[in-house]
Amino acid sequence: MRNLILEINSSKLACNVAMDDVARNVFAAFLELEGNDTLKTLCSLVKKWRPLFLNYYKSSEESLAAKSPAQRKVEIELKRKCQIQMLLAIEDKYEKEANSFGPKVAKLVHFLYNDADVLDEEAILEWAKTIAEESPLKGIMEPIVNWLQEDEEESDEEE
């Protein structure tokens, strides 16, 4: 996985590609891999590719602890934007293959959030606001969005 990260980063620099484009394209390419036709195999591949996803979509506690507060804030914001790009790649795949991919979308997003710990609640909620009202994807994502909002409200009440 380290070699793949190195290759992606080298190509990013050589081609002058923005980090958010890299984030979107990494997950878009992942979604096109062979063997992603069932939710079970898709989730299995997410587990296998998790180190790559963590590199582009999450900041480790150790990495953040070594930075100044200003640097931490910048990195957290960058990773949130990258997570939104991941979600936009999922949305793109849905738009191309609604019938076959649609039933997997909410479960995949939930898996990336809850099990793989690659997505943060804030990124999912922010992305969900951008989905067109008339899009069937809005309805597909509604249960997980409601669940996250309820969870957020409960957390706010506890504080």
From TrEMBL:
Tell me a Gene Ontology molecular-function term this record carries.
Answer: translation initiation factor binding
Residue ranges constituting the W2 domain according to the UniProt record: 1-158
Matching Gene3D superfamilies, A to Z? 1.25.40.180
The protein depicted here goes by the name W2 domain-containing protein
Under the heading SUPFAM superfamilies, the entry gives: ARM repeat
Q: What is the lineage of its organism?
A: Eukaryota, Metazoa, Ecdysozoa, Nematoda, Chromadorea
A single Gene Ontology CC term: eukaryotic translation initiation factor 2B complex
One Pfam family in the UniProt entry = W2
